[in-house]
């Protein structure tokens, strides 16, 4: 093994979830192989190239696994994967599982500096990357980084005209799979490293076992399946994101379902995929759904066609706070329950389930739902003493359960900061459990704007702004200020031809009960919000844009 990954959960606790059947106690490739044998010709993947069945995918996986083994890649090795949503990304993850290696997927669009940090800290021995995707040349960029990464031995390039020094993925896929014998890694051993877009200077990397993915995360999706019918999941988020880890390992290996994949999200492509492929589950972030709703309105799709959108089982929204306005509009447009998912790469998961068409709300917005011990048990603790708090008291949300990761990768300081001696994960989120056991999220310990000593929660203001009749989407960020320290800026996508002014927004927020000191003092109107590679609103890019606008305004004054 190239990097030490220690399970911070007590061994007897981890094994208890195998004994009671909560976790399958099989590695991901063995689970996938069993699904393939059970239904040879079921469709596994639908992407830009068309449909690929379980048996055809398995042959490609075995070819790739044997080709990678020929490069010297084996059990315990970390291999980076930077590919768009496609069959290649699925093949890579399953092939690495078949070798007992550890996949480190990260989304296309993340630059060379961040990629270098991830590969260096994980001591990756190889990386599989796209030759070109939307103008970016990831394979060439990573090959240029290789001299600075002593552990990195190979760059495998997916696409045409591969850069010098890289290994064509097509060559590995032509390997004869005859005689390939899969590894049988420990199901409690590392299978995948999830990359978090959290608040640290460098992205956090979190190691997950086969059981945590197929068991804990698999139980999450199972709770959203009303029967045993294999799910058909449209992933609007990258498979290489934490949210996207519910793809290959969960949808395919655990549940024998079908992945519907877009190599790049646009609202038009997403709506076409819903119509053409009739997914049972649509997984995305609220901003994506708001963009799809706006496209539906603009094209007047529901009114101009005799054929409405096919009705999914669930619209599963996570990655960012969900507001009631979006939830209601989405439930009406898609005709199915909207599920609010509270979760993170760090090992927390909770959702509102299928029993509500529109998830319930409280004074803080949409509730997080009822914790499922087959996924992750949740407690509320004092942020300073870490002692459990009674129901109704706001404290830090901590989590521990079958989906709890092993540890942070190459970051013992993060293990010390965010994991307790008993294995609980400290989320850094504030919330409370009510008398009925429902989790309510109140905000972040760190995510506050401090204006003249007064704390402002951006999420609180955002929830109200998106309910404004002229606002389609909103993100609030801090801007530095020499007098107050920080002030709040609102970044809006508006409905219709005109945007509300700051004064008008202030009146509206006051009517909604938001204190004056929490009102935005800067306004940025955009045609759409920028998204990170993981599909979330890019707050750093918005701060930069606001700073540029303020500098330009001062220069013209």
From TrEMBL:
Domain AMP-binding enzyme C-terminal: 460-536
Tree of life domain: Bacteria
Any Pfam family matching the protein: AMP-binding
UniProt domain AMP-dependent synthetase/ligase: residue ranges: 41-408
Matching InterPro entries: AMP-bd_C, AMP-bd_C_sf, AMP-dep_synth/lig_dom, ANL_N_sf, ATP-dep_AMP-bd_enzyme
GO molecular function: acid-thiol ligase activity
CDD domains given in the database record: AFD_class_I
Signal peptide as annotated in the record: none
Protein name: Pentalenene synthase
Source species of the chain: Streptomyces viridochromogenes
